[in-house]
Design a protein that fits this description.
single chain; mainly alpha; globular
């Protein structure tokens, strides 16, 4: 298996997690719109997921960016915190389209480029 293939696999897993958090965020925004309050029990951010799963925020971000190959125990903790079964997660994972994956890759590249630009300006 080539390095790019491995990256794409990690990226697909990370995008699945991002999609879950984004969906939860939209649900919470809708809840706030209807009731005036957010549901604090809905995990809709890396910070909340870190607290519930005991997986560091930096590890969660690295998973979403496809930088690390997370251990099975890490995924078990994430899914348990989100209240998801592996089969439900697999439906989200398998439902990702090539366009979604390519958009995610592009967004990561843009963030990386912007971060590099900011860092080079700080050094000057």
């Amino acid at each position: 298996m080539e390095q790019n293939d491995k990256y794409d696999i990690k990226l697909r897993w990370g995008l699945s997690l991002k999609k879950i958090l984004d969906t939860n965020k939209m649900l919470n925004e809708e809840k706030k719109k209807n009731t005036g309050k957010r549901d604090k029990s809905i995990i809709d951010s890396f910070g909340k997921l870190e607290k519930e799963s005991e997986i560091t925020k930096s590890t969660l971000v690295n998973i979403v960016q496809g930088k690390i190959n997370a251990a099975t125990t890490t995924w078990a903790a994430i899914l348990e915190a989100l209240g998801l079964s592996l089969s439900k997660f697999a439906l989200i994972h398998d439902g990702l389209t090539p366009d979604e994956i390519n958009q995610h890759k592009s967004a990561i590249k843009v963030k990386k480029k912007n971060t590099a630009t900011k860092n080079s300006k700080k050094k000057k």
